[in-house]
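Journal club side-thread
Mid-discussion, someone asked how the predicted structure for our own chain would compare to the paper's figures. Pasting it here so we can look after the session.
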Amino acid sequence: MGDAGARTRGAESLAWVESAWQDWLAGRRSWSELGRKYGHNRHTVRASVLRYAGARAASYTNGPDPLAEYIDGLTADLARALAIAVDTNASPRCQVTALKLATQIREKLAAARGVVTRREGREHSGRVEVEACLSDLTDSELRKIVAA
């Protein structure tokens, strides 16, 4: 138990580094100012923040597979959205919003798995044709189409 306590004390004593990193990201770029705020000299703050930033960067490349993490995250989000959609205590507005979100998440899941979710018509000239919905047209544009 003494070993776990030592790790906790060590983690607590370095908690300021993450806070200093957040300050750095928020635009507070003076090492001296950060040093005064966290009670360390500017060299210690700079070295600690740069080491922390390097560890963060390494965790992005050495961590779990980003695609697997993305798909698993979307799957968890889909489960939460569907739970809200069927929750009888949720307002009808929340349920409809959750269903729309679930549809968007399904599209993202399909795209992440390589399924084509949207198709665009292209001519050989390379021009992109855009399909317009009638609801997107103004009244005058709709009249022109009907008159033609």
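Post-session note: The chain has two domains: 2-62, 66-112.
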